[in-house]
């Protein structure tokens, strides 16, 4: 051993001689972990935070969760050749319909960048259908505003009048660089698709409950060829475990396929949705539901819901059929959760008792729900206090602890309410099964 | 939470037989996003993290704060760890980088604390001498010495982890130790370009 090594050894021994304050050390780890969890929670809350502008439109259901990056090599290389597209591959990886639209040149590159308060948003490109628009954006946040996030979008005409109706968006953060993100937004127009220049206005806010700190305006004009959706009126009724389900119509457009479904009023179960609704051509190709974005929307009739599937618009086939085997459903009498937030107690819940661990963190409510890995649904929407007062949560969160337990968080509104609170359920990990196939053409 | 930590500690010091997880498996599960595994992983390496922080920062409170910060950062970045077998090196490197950043921000006061803080610890001055010598190395070399001589991490592992050829790591380490020797022998002034000035500055500051 050289003299240097001897000294280094001695140095090491000195360092190891020092006592480790065990309790304080574990406390430090715990605090670091909790800080990270809190931040993660906040990030996930942003994912499903609904745009303030679309709050007025009831029953737009957003399903957004982080999916791992998996893109077929062929598709990745096809897309990489389109300028500005390589950065947003992750946004369309789960959507065959949008991939097909891009492959079939139904994609318009825009490339307009706007800046506010050190933050940059670039509108990379758009895809349209008869009534709506999908915009792809890349975002660079400012290092001075690390808590900033995109909180909403709207479309304005040249006079500054809003021409967008409802919409939803989701943001994917770059895992290596948390100042970068990609984002896709889907917006419905109030009227027909405008041919004149319009403005995509992006709203930026800081922290979850803070006010907005600025807007960025991105002007563009739609040059894409108008497309005609294909509508099939079916009105076919099927029965699954005694529950009657009518497929009223199917409309296929370049952005998505809309399936209009009615659940009979006198069904004994409340059907929350389809687990595997899909369209198949005769050749083995299957188009399933939208995984990252608006996956369903309500209508004026509470029994009628429109479910969205990935579009097969650009794929020519002679035969198409709609299939499903599994629905999320629960007896109507059981479909509610009643809690006392003061005592942190669950008073009533479905018989199989999958809710547990209700905790309050100030006005923030957290509850665990045991489902399977594929359960990613927010069970809550509007809720009611003991006097029947209607309450809304401005934001919620959804995260997973391991594979099974979902932790659902809700920001309770900043107003007085009387316990207990009643939450009609809009999802719950309980299922019915059948084997349905309906010919479309 | 207390029970959990006790459990984690038990698993580590236990006979490691049966269905217990290896360190690598714990790291893999942590990478997969399992919170318990993440906490267990940090717990496994908490002493390495703490001692690293202490070696750099010379202060118990600051070292503990650094452990908190590194836990926070590691949780956010664990998904980017590609090789679970090098989780310890990965964590220690995050810690070293963090401490280095901290020191850059408050360079002037460090040496002062060294003396106060460690006054009663050692009966000879080897520790202080080594620390003094290390502080004259480039940060890269200092980290290398830490990994090898404080944490006993194999040269091959350091090479894998940093995507550097093993030969290069060896050469760099050899040179780093050689400049330590030069420092011990009092010849460092000429060899360490620009670094000597900094020491003077610090000393004047006191």
From TrEMBL, chain A:
Highest taxon of source: Bacteria
Transmembrane segments: 47-67
Pfam families to which the protein is assigned, alphabetical: DUF4179, DUF5643
Statement: the UniProt record of this protein carries the keyword Cytoplasm: no
Keywords recorded for this protein, A-Z: Membrane, Transmembrane, Transmembrane helix
Domain DUF5643 as annotated: residue spans: 230-341
InterPro entries: DUF4179, DUF5643
DUF4179 domain residues: 51-140
Protein name (database record): DUF4179 domain-containing protein
Native species: Sporosarcina luteola
Source species taxonomy: Bacteria, Bacillati, Bacillota, Bacilli, Bacillales
